[in-house]
Q: What sequence folds into this?
């Protein structure tokens, strides 16, 4: 990993290290033990993707979580009714900026990769997981659902597997994730495997031509994703969050108690 230059202070919830003469960035989630995706880390990631779009020499970004886990997911406290109306659109803006940056995105997963963390990883072009990885969309256990996964996950794993993960909320291991193509590779060192892939397949290419190839490969998908995500966001905010059980599920998690469902 030549030419390692840190672009952000280590105290930030997300840091960027520039490698391979700036052609490859390592983006690390550093927001506590579970690398929770709260407003500060979402805003930091969004700005990173905006900066990536303006960096002509950049060819690939690898996202990892500091410590034992990739991410436990988005902040549950920020899903409470009085906060979710601000948080969710910001979270979805991050994915729009990921698509617009037209840089090859990789995720290197260790430990838990759940909820919004899995949405972030699955949206990448290549996902590499360690054997100990645990992946899932457990939002339904809190009485809510995962908007990005509901729209995008079928593109990666097919409708049947996407329905299974989003509706059951079950968590799977790396081997099952590989079989359903939720991850592309299992490696004892996901970050090293991501760099090896970039060195073999990306870094010798023209950065500008790679961006055109990435735009072309996902052009139809990006358009469909933007339209569908806007529609699902309104379902979440206007309909789901008007129910008793959605608010109850989130509050019960924050208050560390069992939810009292009323099925309405």
A:
């Amino acid at each position: 990993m030549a030419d390692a230059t840190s672009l952000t202070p280590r105290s930030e919830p997300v840091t960027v290290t520039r490698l391979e003469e700036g052609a490859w960035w390592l983006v690390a989630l550093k927001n506590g033990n579970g690398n929770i995706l709260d407003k500060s880390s979402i805003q930091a990631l969004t700005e990173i993707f905006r900066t990536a779009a303006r960096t002509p020499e950049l060819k690939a970004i690898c996202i990892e979580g500091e410590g034992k886990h990739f991410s436990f997911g988005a902040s549950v406290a920020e899903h409470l009714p009085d906060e979710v109306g601000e948080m969710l659109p910001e979270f979805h803006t991050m994915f729009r900026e990921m698509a617009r940056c037209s840089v090859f995105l990789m995720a290197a997963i260790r430990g838990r990769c759940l909820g919004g963390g899995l949405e972030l990883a699955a949206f990448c072009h290549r996902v590499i997981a360690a054997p100990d990885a645990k992946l899932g969309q457990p939002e339904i256990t809190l009485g809510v659902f995962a908007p990005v996964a509901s729209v995008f996950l079928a593109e990666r794993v097919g409708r049947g597997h996407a329905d299974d993960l989003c509706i059951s909320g079950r968590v799977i291991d790396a081997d099952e994730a590989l079989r359903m193509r939720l991850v592309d590779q299992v490696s004892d060192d996901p970050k090293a495997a991501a760099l090896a892939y970039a060195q073999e397949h990306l870094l010798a290419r023209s950065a500008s031509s790679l961006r055109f190839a990435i735009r072309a490969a996902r052009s139809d998908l990006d358009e469909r994703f933007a339209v569908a995500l806007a529609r699902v966001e309104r379902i979440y905010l206007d309909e789901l969050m008007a129910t008793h059980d959605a608010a109850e599920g989130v509050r019960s998690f924050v208050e560390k108690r069992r939810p009292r469902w009323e099925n309405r």
